[in-house]
Amino acid sequence: MTRSLGAEGLPLRTSIAWVxxxxxxxxxxxxxxxxxxxxxxxxxxxxxxIDTLALRxxxxxxxxxxxxxxxxxMKTGADGVRDGVISAIDGLAATRPTAANxxxxxxxxxxxxxxxxxxxxxxQMLVDxxxxxxxxxxxxxxxxxxxxxxxxxxxxxxxxxxxxGFLATAGEGTALAAVYRARDAGKKVQVFVCExxxxxxxxxxxxxxxxxxxxxVTLMVDSAAAGLIAEGGVDLCLIGxxxxxxxxxxxxxxxxYQLALACKHHDLPFYVAAPGTTVDTACSDGSVIPVExxxxxxxxxxxxxxxxxxxxxxxxxxxxxxxxxxxxxxxxEEGVIHPPYIFES
Length: 345
Ligand code: MRU
Hints:
Elements: E1 2-4, E2 16-19, E3 22-26, E4 37-40, H1 43-51, H2 58-76, H3 81-93, H4 100-115, H5 119-149, E5 155-160, H6 175-184, E6 188-194, H7 201-212, E7 217-220, H8 225-230, E8 236-239, E9 243-245, E10 250-253, H9 256-265, E11 270-273, E12 279-280, H10 297-300, E13 301-302, E14 305-306, E15 319-322, E16 329-332, E17 335-337
Parallel strand pairs: 5-6, 5-8, 6-7, 8-11, 9-12, 11-16
Antiparallel strand pairs: 1-4, 2-3, 3-4, 9-10, 10-15, 13-14, 16-17
Helix pairs in contact: 1-2, 2-3, 2-4, 2-5, 3-4, 4-5, 5-6
5-S-methyl-1-O-phosphono-5-thio-D-ribulose (MRU) is lined by residues 53, 56-59, 99, 162, 164, 168-169, 174, 201, 240-242, 252-253, 318.
């Protein structure tokens, strides 16, 4: 069963929670106009929410998927639990192909299924594991914020893209966690955010999150970023990641590559913040990381109105490859890593 709870269903600055066998999450499609919390115990609803970006951000979709598997086990009871849970894992894994965190979380749930012999133990084991995924993400975000803060000068104009804050994780965020820590440490931070066409995560989500937190934020169209960098308008670029290959190549929201190129050209630091759950050592380099292509409608329509001629061909990759040699450093829960990047499993 799925229901809408309005704005009251979650504490402030919290994007997801587990409440008595049910998952509560913000419907991010409606922000910033409406803050509505959805509650469900149905993995298909969670899969649909991930697919339509009601739930989004690499760490958050991993946490949501793990909780959805646990909810399935609770709902099913011992009879048929194994088959039900395996269907949920398969269905959730088929939602979005790029973020490593989704697969990492589902692998954790699958390992519990594989090593639990007695079906009557599965429910509790899966709930414990899913809550572990959620707690781990909170802990990783907090460590990333701490390490990332050290890279931010006392006065800083920070360029970012998409949304990497509390809306994208179960904790305080990744790249934005560093910004929050810097502000809390008394630094004078200002954020420039690309609107992030076509789904406007920068305009709708980051601009909202930072405004609510009282951090000055300036919104601009994606294509203004290189000009801003060229005229010395920012001090550093700080973004998140959906998957990082063993050699440090990064895949993140489309628009990230042009930011990295412009930073390199103008000798500006370009940092990526992501938890270890985003690193996929099975990918030797970025070329083997799959990039999700989304529907033509996301680009051909603006606010519900068609803006491109009917029948025009559209290319709509959701993510960009950023080669490791453009990345000044990667901030993980363990600290800041500099090139050459060699991640090992
Ligand atoms: O398509 P989205 O909104 O899920 O894309 C999200 C991003 O690209 C984020 O930068 C990334 O997931 C890191 S979030 C901490």
